[in-house]
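Now read these lines:
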Amino acid sequence: MANWIASHITLIVAAVALVSLFVPESFIWIRTSTITPLLGIVMFGMGLTIRPSDFLPVIQHPRDIIVGELAQFLVMPMLAWGLCVALSLPTELAIGVMLVGCCPGGTASNVMCYLAGGDIALSVAMTGVSTLLAPIVTPALVLLLAGHEVDVDALGMLMSIVQVVILPIVLGFIVRHYFRSLTDRVMPYLPLGSTLAIAVIIGVVVSHNAENILSCSLLVGVVVILHNVLGLGLGYGLASLLGIEHTKRTAIAIEVGMQNSGLATSLATTHFALFPMSAVPGAIFSVWHNVSGSIAAQIFRRLK
């Protein structure tokens, strides 16, 4: 059952999104304050899977990592800002889109990279590095892009990312190191826990904003799709221009296009509570990027 749920994450996430949108009572009883601890559970699971050797590509091939991280924190934030300006997005939605653009890569990118036949070691290393950079880079980028529109608590965001992302990952890493046999036994169930946690996060956000989503779903959907698809394309194109081999181009493209939208949703509900719709783009992105990631994986595999 755990394997089936993990392999059908796109279907499950989409189903939860639809149910919570049209039958909000199914999830609205869950408080939005649960989003942060649920994301912490996902990050703890990520920490359990990390080994020191996963970061060897950073030392062995620093150029690939540098290209990937620059694309991650330049392409996606600028795309988010450009789309918000071009489509004259309302402030609430613009905040959410820019939060998604400024977040690090998501763990789902590693799965999609595997399906695409990309360089998995590079993908894992990029996710790890971007996550470690996020406490500083993400608040700084949000302040730069959205600070003129709303008050941005950059220090508060930094502390939130440390608490919700860095600490659970470090704790997971420590548990793996000192309780290896126990960790090995629970590892097969980690995708199950992560999938269910992400699904509940989406259900909570969508149900609490169902009415507003239905009133502007087309506009938000267009922005989310463009943001993700352009990120995948530009990530691959940039790596191609620099002469990086196909498997690494694939890893970079998927890493750039697939954001940690769960973190964006958590930051929106925590630091932009006065703008409840700011959590919506992250929730929609969580659904869409699993769909687009699956499609992109098939395309990149055929290009191999």
